[in-house]
# Entry
Amino acid sequence: MPIQTDIGYTTPDAIYVRGRNLSTEILGKFDFVDMLWFVTFGRQPELREKNMVNLLLVTAADHGLTPSAITTRLTWLGAPESLQGAVAAGLLGAGNNFLGTVQNVSEILVREAAPLAADADDAAVRARAAEMVRDFRARRQTIPGIGHPIHVDGDPRVPTLMAVSRDNGYFGKHWRLALAVTDVLREDHGRHLPLNAAGANGAVLADMGLDPLLGRGLALIGRAAGLVAHVVEERTAPTGQQIWDLVLRQDARNTLPLRKA
# Structure
């Protein structure tokens, strides 16, 4: 039996992706989000889907000197011949604490919102959020997607993410549950932990009805662009060596011999 994939194949004369000729039916007609959706689902996205995917990709692209960007710059410092190695090193840290959080949030919201009707009233949504918070607290587990070490009074990205979701018809019970959780924590437990961008994007994925795995996938795709930019900047305005020098200075201070009194 031949080994094949439904995504695409090549002949001596042409390349086909999802049954369409890449050269004559796709190139010059699809943009990147069109192609991303087409290779994944075999169709082009609706306009509102495209708007949301662009939003998710742009949100993930860069947040400054994050762990992924630092890892990429330090890898480039050691292997400046390997752009792919530096970018890959940064992406390998996309786990449950960074970038991958979108998938975790989406999985939780899909599970926890399952008992709610699509048109559930505010009281039902809040009651479900209160039950969710109790369950997590009983298991001594943190709820991903809330709070931020820098944006302690509220993630500035969330209002825009919410507005675009509303404009495109993807503000449903998952978004409402995520926001209700923050209300319950503040009003019932005295914890001010606003929704962060990962929480908002997880709600977007859930309300779009997409596989939560795509949350991590889109975060990786978006962040790859940012990491390439960090490597480009590292060539002319390096910070990798500065970071390494800082560590060396700290090590030197920690290992200096003690002076006798």
